[in-house]
Design a protein that fits this description.
This protein is an alpha/beta fold. 33% of the residues lie in helices and 19% in strands.
Length: 281
Amino acid sequence: MPALRLSFIAICALLSLAGCARAPSNTPTRIALLAPFEGRYREIGYNALYAAQLALQDIDDHTFELLPVDDGGSAASAGARARALALDPAVQAAVVLGYAATDPDTLRFYGNLPVLVVGHWDAQPQPPNVFALVPAALEDTLTTPRRVEVTTAARLPAPLVGSDVLALAQFPRLRADLNSVVIVSSGSLPTPEFTARYLASSPFAPMPGLLASLTYDAVRIAALAVAEPGRAAAARRLAAVRYQGLNGTVSFENGWWRSAPINYYQFDDQGRLVPVDRVVE
């Protein structure tokens, strides 16, 4: 989907929030997707968008509606949009990616809205309604700053161990020497079967990245949590969930993914991610 068209969807989504107090009783249950759809990090949003759409297609339950919203490119704009989502009674859960949507201030603006954080963005699941699809121990493996911009990471000296931001398709184009660069993530590489279904879901779908399958799982988990109305009940269901998905078994402890996988990747000569051992030479 071209960026212009997605921007239109995001604008329409925000306009719909303005009238949320008068939401009709037959409005589908909304699962919001707050992520960057413009600017340098737009590949995060577009990778997540088609994975989220595929997840709801597979559920095949028309009571759910995906609400994609651009984060605006800053914590301030993401916070304003998080606050709008919190005020929409039809929105029962949010799946969020990127630095702006997971900023500590933004997380507070979600209010009592259950939130699933996909990927490592140094998001701390301190509010009881926030759940991070990463293990707490993942941060201990990193040598980069926890909230490092991709352009900054591209200039850091090797050896380099970073999180999901280094897995972006743009990173190999920004850094000439990829030797001794390791990406640590709880996301799994898309399988050929998932990739085929993902690409077939839309003529605009890009190649799925490292977080595509994790977004797919997150949306399905959100749908399970909001199957019955009530945000407080949905948050309790998330805290007790045990979900078997593309990335293994997901359950939470203190907001973190309990027993989450910690996977290690490097870029090959063609700029593709491949699994490796954790040792960085």
